[in-house]
Amino acid sequence: MHRLKNAEQFLWDGDVEAAIALFEGCKFKRVVNFVSYLRKHCLRIPEYSYFHQLGLTIGSGAVESSIKQIGRRIKISGAQWNQKNVPQVLKHRCAYLNGFLDSSEYNYSVLN
To answer: 36, 14 in Cβ contact below 8 A?
Structure first.
């Protein structure tokens, strides 16, 4: 359990190689699978502590919630969506969420 806590700290700090080294030589199937996962995805594992220090969110909940909300709105009973209109609505929604609709910098070329 101590190794797992150390691995968690190494991964939080973005040191994937140090986390892998903790389990070197271990033959348990779950550990082998975990190390394989870390090796396969090492370039995609961020340094969470850095983003945390900047005050940035590190979860995907907000994005997943927005996708679910947009999906529900598209499927509203009685709504008539044309397939070519949906991307434009999504571009407007992204512009709004990124603060471009309230900004003097906003222009329609952002959406096209």
So the answer is: no
pLDDT at residue 4 is higher than 70: yes
Amino acid residing at 26: C
Nearest to 26 by CA among 35, 17, 14, 16: 35
Distances (CA, A) of 6 to 9, 11, 79, 90, 102: 5, 9, 52, 42, 45
How many CA within 13 A on the CB side of residue 3?
11
CA 100 to chain centre: 22
How much is the pLDDT for 11? 96
Residue 112 has pLDDT above 80, yes or no: no
CB-based contact 85:92 (threshold 8 Å): no
Domain ranges of the chain: 2-53, 61-110
Tell me the pTM. Answer: 0.58
What CA–CA distance (Å, rounded) separates 36 from 38? 5
